[in-house]
Design a protein that fits this description.
mainly alpha; 6% strand; EF_Hand_1_Ca_BS
């Protein structure tokens, strides 16, 4: 399954273009622009599964760096500042990784 089977390619494109400059990525704005905030909880879980590159059930810091590239292969890598900010914003239990429920809570909030 690909992200474009859940989200529109145009919406993904717009969201990627909006955060092309280093340190301009804002997860909540990105989720709104790509249309993820309007999707069902089941679709959000599917997106989480795609973003969980190693299938561990969590999105770790290393996977977060390449977050934008999971949406569009030509996108940039997140900066360390963006990666840590994203992790802090979503990691409710402070275990250093984002679980499916934490991801869903961030997207839907």
């Amino acid at each position: 399954m690909s992200l474009s089977s859940i989200l529109s390619a145009d919406a993904i494109d717009s969201a990627i273009k909006d955060c092309q400059a280093p340190d301009s990525f804002c997860p909540k704005k990105f989720f709104q622009m790509c249309g993820l905030t309007k999707k069902s909880p089941q679709d959000v879980k599917k997106v989480f599964g795609i973003l969980d590159n190693d299938g561990s059930g969590f999105i770790e810091e290393e996977e977060l760096k390449f977050f934008l590239q999971r949406f569009s292969p030509g996108a940039r890598v997140l900066t360390d500042k963006e990666t840590k900010g994203f992790l802090c914003a979503a990691d409710d239990d402070s275990d250093g990784r984002i679980g499916a429920d934490e991801f869903q809570a961030m997207v839907m909030s």
